[in-house]
Amino acid sequence: MSKVREIKSVIASELDEFESRFKESMKSNTPLLDKITHYIIKRKGKQMRPMFVFLSAKVCGQINDATYTAASLIELLHTATLVHDDVVDDANLRRGFFSINALWKNKVAVLVGDFLLSRGLLMSVDQQQFALLRIVSNAVQEMSEGELLQMEKARKLDITEEVYFNIIRQKTASLIAACCESGAHSVQADPDSVKKMSAFGEKVGLAFQIKDDLFDYNTNGNIGKPTGIDIKEKKMTLPLIYAISKAQRTDKRWLVKTVKHHNTDKEKVQDVIDYVALSGGIEYARDKMLEHRDDALKILHSFEESEARNSLEALVNYTIERKK
Length: 324
Hints:
It contains 15 helices and two strands. By secondary structure, it is mostly helical.
């Protein structure tokens, strides 16, 4: 049994039920839209976000209709942002499949994203789940702000470690925090438990993103993206930020110049990767990742032990041990 399947086993029936409800929530009378939403469902990933919603809910209480609404709402709004992201990035692939914009062009992709967004809004309004809508909408706002902050900083490459953590907290951690917070809220957990679940999700999200950034410096080839892709996109990640902060002035100038002006030169990018590795940047980032993982588990262990809590802990460990 794979690690993910083992983690899912505690909420297997709930995830099956979620799948059918989610498909229903995306249905449309417009044939083209129906065809595209069917394509989106068919190429879904590991269901990480619904897993966080359902396991958080189960740690705090009994899964109910509101939990399914929370999971569907997160998936609809997040899928909308991914469709729009692919247009912004001019990306032709998403998880190894053609992106919506690659198959149906940008105009259609933007409209599909708008449709998914409106479906999520209508679902929460129809079911009067305004608190859940607020939690998820806040996360989408944070994600947009984080992306824009990263784009702004990519022009000057003047990201400090503090700014980096602000970016990844908004870009990645805010959504996982929303999954855990909405899961706890959906089962009427007390305000303190809801707050703790949100803090837990944020810590997991920070660890998750640092793991993602470390893939850029992985030299064994068994990864989900080509080595050096972040440098090519002028993204300042933690290993590089650390290396620059510790470098002598001449090395610092060379690193920034290479990332700014020679980021498509494979040999020069490899030189930067080698320098970062020798500077201790990779070890530093890995230590920070484990620190956030440990903080997350400390919060989780304040909840009563259960099958759901054990699975949630396994999911946390999976996020930092995954190969892609």
